[in-house]
Amino acid sequence: MRPAIFPLLPDPGCLLLLLVSWLFNPARSEITSLDSGNIDDILNNADVALVNFYADWCRFSQMLHPIFEEASNVIKEEYPDKNQVVFARVDCDQHSDIAQRYRISKYPTLKLFRNGMMMKREYRGQRSVTAIADYIRQQKSNPVREVQDLEEITSLDRSRRNIIGYFEQKDSDNYRTFERVANILHDDCVFLSAFGAISKAERFSGDNVIYKPPGENAPDMVYLGSLTNFDLIYAWTQDKCVPLVREITFENGEELTEEGLPFLILFHMKDDLESLEKFQQEVARQLIGEKGTINFLHADCDKFRHPLLHIQKTPADCPVIAIDSFRHMYVFPDFSDLSVPGKLKQFVLDLHSGKLHREFHHGPDPTDVAPGQPIQDLASSPPESSFQKLAPSEHRYTLLREKDEL
């Protein structure tokens, strides 16, 4: 008769050690790796997706990997549905086509997507588990504040851009489209909504969306298109929420610099709204065709004293108009010439043609010299760019140069 064989039981102390190890070192979450075959399907089905564009050889990418993974673990505990929040990554060396598609210019870059649409603002906050997790929680919060009484509308902060939707029902296609737009543009506008009996007085012809621009006396603007057509209402809302002339701050300076367009900047005192209004009007009148070739900005003279000193100006000289080409800065001769037809436009055209640069180095072009006057070669050097210093830091990113073709 063969002897019975009993399996050896593990040592109880070993079992305890394994249990403790499992409790304090839970299974790591899988970060979804994106490629050309799966990227559209995964991003289109994700309510919110945070994508890490990285390169293995980049030390900043290597430093971010464990932080990104741990933040994913934290968030997946709170949002277990796989389509609620997706943490994903793209190896830009292996998938250069994807990197080019999303215009990656530095490693690592964290971009946010909503239902497949890439948001304009990438994540530029602190690279810590807490900060990234808080950022995602913020993105998952409701971007629309519900109004309980129309009296609340009368006390809105009129220094902000407000979009207000009046709906019969919250559970409706009209509101769902409105909420989707708010999810994308909530950093640029304040979104509010009212429903049912509260909104009835504003729904005399059906569900209604209005825009309240900054300024106590600025008239409301009404959206006249279909409330279920996302493309139409998004385009209308973006036009209202993202002004032609934007304010540059130290918080958004990196983002604006990275767009790669020269800056046409009005430096003005914070309470000098008259100069700002004149500048906005002339930009709209003279330079609307230059949108996409130059960024139209305004800046607080007190906050941006250093760029002013760079062009030998002080807040006492404001308002001042200047161009920063990211190589040099050029000053518009006289603010009072702003309303001279074509003067501001010529200033911008002279930048594009290289005339501003030539004249700083060699004096007026020969065509600008009166007949009989000698042509002088005036050796000079325009001030270096000041806003280029707000570009992404090399102590935080591996920046791609022209030689670093993706």
TrEMBL record:
Residues 378-388 have a biased composition (Polar residues). CDD domains: PDI_a_ERp44, PDI_b'_ERp44, PDI_b_ERp44. GO terms for biological process: protein folding. It is found in: Endoplasmic reticulum lumen. Keywords: Chaperone, Disulfide bond, Endoplasmic reticulum, Signal. One of its GO terms (molecular function) is protein disulfide isomerase activity. InterPro entries: ERP44, ERp44_PDI_b_1, ERp44_PDI_b_2, Thioredoxin-like_sf, Thioredoxin_domain. Residues 18-141 form the Thioredoxin domain. Gene3D superfamilies: Glutaredoxin (3.40.30.10). SUPFAM superfamilies: Thioredoxin-like. Forms mixed disulfides with both ERO1A and ERO1B and cargo folding intermediates; the interactions with ERO1A and ERO1B result in their retention in the endoplasmic reticulum. Directly interacts with ITPR1 in a pH-, redox state- and calcium-dependent manner, but not with ITPR2 or ITPR3. The strength of this interaction inversely correlates with calcium concentration. Mediates thiol-dependent retention in the early secretory pathway, forming mixed disulfides with substrate proteins through its conserved CRFS motif. Inhibits the calcium channel activity of ITPR1. May have a role in the control of oxidative protein folding in the endoplasmic reticulum. Required to retain ERO1A and ERO1B in the endoplasmic reticulum. This is Endoplasmic reticulum resident protein 44. It comes from Notiomystis cincta. The gene is Erp44.
